[in-house]
Amino acid sequence: MKQKEQARRQFLRNLGVTLCAGGASALLPQLKLMGSALAAQTGTVAGYRALVCVYLAGGNDSWNMLLPYDTTRHGVYAAARSGIYNATTNAGGLGIDRAALTSQFQITDSATGALYAVNPGNATYPGGMSDLATIYRANKLAFLPNIGTLIRPITKTEYNASPALRPPQLYSHNDQENLWHLARTTATGTGWGGLVADRVRLDNVNQALSPCISMAGSNRFEVGEDTFPYQMSSSGLTGLSNIYNAANSTGGTYGSQRAGALDLLLNDTTNTSPLTKEYGRTFKRGRDLYDLVNSSLTAADNSGNVTTVFPSGNSLADQLKMVARMIKISRESSGQIQHKRQIFYVRVGGFDLHDGLMATNQNGHGALLNRVSQALGAFWTCLGELGAQNDVTAFTMSEFARTLSSNGNGSDHAWGGVQFVMGGAVNGGRLYGTFPDQTLNNAISFSRGQTIPSTSVDQMAATLARWMGVTSSTDLATIFPNLINFPTSNLGFMA
After folding, report:
1. What is the spatial distance between Cα 122 and Cα 90, in angstroms, rounded to a whole number?
2. What is the pTM of this model?
3. Which of 173, 194, 235, 451 has CB atoms 3.0–4.6 Å from 416's, for a disulfide?
4. Cβ 423 vs Cβ 393: under 8 Å
């Protein structure tokens, strides 16, 4: 039995290599025979794991996402935030009133007993981050306070004396987003998600479909040496206009004729141009992948859908619903994808709130965090529907946090902030790292409360990479070259 299993796995590896080498167009139809070849396999792919990167674009003011609740530290927080916001008496204040932090928003750091609260929303969005607070209290969500881009640990004195020790272009949106995606502070074309995928994708049966899948367009995070993200939208795949994409699709009156003409062009062997040939092969692989993924998502038996209700009018929820559907069809052991490792990328914008941070409309910070909480709450429920809560870990990234002090109507670019991780494999219900003293211009912050991070992006990313199966110290050092500069490469938040 063991010999047969080894032979089966070797066959799948060889098939994957063949597909990657350009034989996808010829062999993809044969994947339909997998069901009989692997008839003994049922249910879901054993050992499946996935990461879901939730990017909060614009620089999330995370000091209003997680804030201290005890009276003393809340007082320090409120003073640093230019006082408690009041539309009439203190419209420039950014602090959230402690009285608004009712029990549904309160959480405790189980490691220290310290009291915190998550954003309570406002009168227009009273649910605030209650969905995520509930998951936190179930020990399936953890916060990482004061995390940011670093070359190595740095003191305030070193920051002032040695600019070379600072991450490059520290307060630039584009540059800091790149550093989060790369998890390094030197220029490179690859992201840490893609490099992780390079090393864990071997056991994915269908190698033609990238293990990195983006619902939010191109991104550096998912680009590896051998891996490039497969891009979709929250509504699925877009087929060619007025042409048959598959045998069961419609393409207008002359759809089949157009499809035939296109096939002739793609299969033309008389053209000797290497560029033209490669374009044809790439185009054909794209059509084959469309047929494969779209047929699974839109199967007549509705097996490519989920029953969990996601909130409407919420772009992040739409993206996460499609992620859930992709997870469902990808980990089905009788399906045509059978991935064991996947990395997804979703994105929501609007966090660059120099103005209107405390607004109660849909563009204010309270509304943004409420939508994030509701979307991830529905996603968590949906993972339960799929039996995949222990197999999927979602985590946030954002360029930087924002100044604690107000600019009069919002906050400006800063440095260290708060991120969170969510999943059944997360050792949740606690904070990992040190929540900073929020006094302005102290030993770890500058005049407006720009905080020097105490935890690096590299450490968070390496902890997630380990969970995905990258355990070699050599691989970790290659993906995260600055990791050696920090006291630990495993923060401990993953089981």
Report:
1. 16
2. 0.89
3. 451
4. yes
d(CA 475, CA 486): 16
- Cα-only R_g, the chain: 24
Residue type, 383: L
Closest by alpha carbon to 67, among 408, 444, 366? 366
Token representation of residue 285: 């692989």
Spatial CA neighbour of 206 closest among 289, 272, 117, 87: 289
d(CA 318, CA 327): 14
Spell out the residues 6+ positions from residue 59 whose beta carbon is closer than 8 angstroms to its own.
173, 176, 351, 352, 398, 399, 400, 401, 402, 413, 414
What tokens does 199 get? 């090393």
Q: At what angle do helices 274-297 and 315-330 cross, to 10 degrees?
A: 90
Question: What single-letter amino acid sits at 339?
Answer: H
CA distance 114 to 107: 9
Q: For every one of its 495 residues, what pLDDT tens digit does the chain have, with 9 covering 90 and above?
A: 444 444 444 444 444 443 443 333 333 333 333 333 333 345 999 999 999 999 999 999 999 999 999 999 999 999 999 999 999 999 999 999 999 999 999 999 999 999 999 999 999 999 999 999 999 999 999 999 999 999 999 999 999 999 999 999 999 999 999 999 999 998 899 999 999 999 999 999 999 999 999 999 999 999 999 999 999 999 999 877 666 555 445 555 556 777 677 777 777 777 778 887 787 778 778 888 999 999 999 999 999 999 999 999 999 999 999 999 999 999 999 999 999 999 999 999 999 999 999 999 999 999 999 999 999 999 999 999 999 999 999 999 999 999 999 999 999 999 999 999 999 999 999 999 999 999 999 999 999 999 999 999 999 999 999 999 999 999 999 999 999 999 999 999 999
As a whole number of angstroms, the distance between CA 57 and CA 44 comes to 34
